[in-house]
Fold these 3 entries.
Entry 1:
Amino acid sequence: MPTKSVLELANWNEDQELTLLLSLLGKDVSHWQDKTAATQLREMDWVRFLRLTEHHRVVPTVYLQLKTLNHPFIPAELLRNLQAQYHRNTLRMLHLQAEAERLTRLLIAHGIRVLMLKGPALAQQLYGDVSLRTSKDIDLLIAPDDMDEAEHWMKEAGYASKSGEVRVLGSWKWKDHHASYLHPQKRVEIELHWRLHPDGGGEPSFDELWNCRKMGKAAGASRQVPLGSADNRTVMTSCMYTLGSEHQFLYLSAHGARHGWFRLRWLVDIDRLAVCAVDWEALLPMMRRYGGLPAGGQAWALAAALLGTPIPEPMRPASATRQAHRLALSALAFMQASVPAPYPIAHGPSTGRLAPSELLHSRALAEQAEAAPPDGGASVCGTCGEAAMLATSGVTSITEDASNADHSPMSTATRCAPITPAVASSQVMTRNTAAAHQPVSRTYLLSLKEPRHRLWYLISRLFPSTGDSAVFPLPRQLHFLYIPLRPFLWLKRRFSKH
């Protein structure tokens, strides 16, 4: 089934800002100016384009593409905005990378094998540069049996558990997949995984993942120091281990599918992985073995339709099935539903859009109210230096929530009064509410599983989970009671949500 029909059925070709974003995320944009008419660019809602870019967490790629194109109709203020976010994200990623190396050294020094998932390691593996991808936390994968000791050393490193849930019996090893920790001073969040995915689905064992691992050299790592006796075990290489390329695709496709691909960043990862040295012939039986064909076929159908990703020959049958097509359409619906809605008018003429001057003040005033920038801090005025840089460009600067009424993105600036702090605060709340991702349905999640894994998932619901201990704490000696109490605790959580 042709992947083009996915877009045709979803009517995405009618969205010019999204179409522009997709063209910039592809590898070849040399023909971009020829295909895009000047009238289209003049009528482009650059503020909506900016919000789409931020929502999908692809600011670094879009900024570098627009900077290279240097088209006269691209607003200079937009480029300055993206540049500030790009620089801030670079610092954030370098900070996360340094902390990931520190924790990796600590755990390996005490005999705990560690694999890096996503984050700076994935950016280095797929993009060759940590600044070209965003990340909000650090994901580490260890063997389930090492969890207790790893948790001890996480606390020694200054991290505290975010959930505080008690692990019940042994079902946590296959029902859950990670625990979150936060460093109160560094404000770095760590997700310590013992599985790749939740819900006890099929996946390779940690030993299999470890045996196929790749060494991903971090930026700035110039030498490798061999390990010696216990006295010098802390002197280590700055290299970190990541998943092998085949396991990487298996993981990324399942992760994106589980979240409905509501961020294009995950699909760009698939696009970059498509040109890496992957043994696609070996991957196909691996996908069959672990139930990865539905998610893998969906990933290829979406990547080919949205980004023009070339599908490797062994993967084409998986992407051409009716199931892959149906799942791709479901993901497109999730993407569209998760896009932030336009802002209401605060001042100015009734154009249906906010003026740039309002949003400059809105963003500057609201910055203090934001506890943490989304996904690694890629916000506009994150530091005083960046705020000052944007302020010196005048009230015509386009910021995260800016919009315009005319063809020129600067033409409405003088018609609007400054916004008050109260209005700024309410707009931030409006943005956060509008941009909240709606969770995917359970029916969709079950459709990603093959029949045997679907049956195992339903059976697994009968076993206790860490959530049961939060609802009804019991001493460890009485944890066996969570088995008969499971239906009642599940119903209590279910009705509590409503």
Entry 2:
Amino acid sequence: MSLLTDALDRILNWLQQNKPSYAYSLQPGLTYEEIEEKVENLPFRLPKEVYELYQWRNGMRTRKGEKIAQFFHRYTFLSLEDAIDEYNQLIGLWDDPELDYEWDKDLYEELAEMVDMTNGFIIPELNKEENELQVEIVNADIWKSDWFPIFYHDPQSYIIVACKHECFVFISEIYLQSIEDGEPKIIFDSLTNMMLNISESYDRRV
């Protein structure tokens, strides 16, 4: 058994004993071939650790009206299908040529009171004819093409794998609302180290 799978099993054991509904929401793992089929259209190859993760379990089941299950620290574990959908949605916004804009910082406080900021950055457009401020909520010009989301907190916060190279990845935490210089906060240099850290923190809570 690899260190990664051992750490994941320890996390699962803690969830089964302390958060059984969260443990129950974990879906059966995928085969290597199933993963290959699902990720064939991604513009990069996922690292081997991510394959191992999704062979272990295919994320957490999410149902409308139910409390979102947490894998750790408010983050849910996205199924591979949901992760790909989330990636495609984010990269689609990033790629949209119509979303070329200049941010007016003076409007920030006014907009913050007007907009429910639950789905990305705010982009103001002033309708001069109607003299009304129209706001479109997107994540434009933020999401990079090699970022793949595997854990989700809200539409502003993700744990991502930076997939520039299959054998050289970083596990990073993204706060889209406050990200600076387009760079995420690197929290671990491998998925194995991340899961070992989480499993050890759970062990201390027993």
Entry 3:
Amino acid sequence: MPDHDNSSRTVTVPTCDHGPVTVREPDWCTGSETTHQPGGYRVDITHASPDYEFTVSTSRGTPVVLRACFEQRPFTEHPPGHVPFMNVEMDGDWHPHSSDDLRRLSESLTAHADRLRELADRLDGLTNAFDATKETTRAAADPKKGRGD
């Protein structure tokens, strides 16, 4: 289990390859045992924030569309490197994002929202056409309607 020093915001994580490793813990890190992965490899030490959930209201509840959290891997040799990044979960997988990547993602989501509004307008047209067809069918089925009676 990691040993936290709250006064200096450091954490000592026992690792299987480097023994106890003391690292500075960012203010946003949850400091959970699973986040720091005690007993694992030093390269696996990860700082992570709480998740930010992006939800939508539907007729069947409020599902999470995407989830994001700040993350930092101080000893990794792989991208995105040692700097903090935003990890975004979509379709069951996590995708690291820089601030520029997040801006591109938000532009893409805005474009998707525009497309959904276009589809809503089209659905209005389809619904109105359906309602008009239903009224015509009802009038034809009722001989009293449509004769000026």
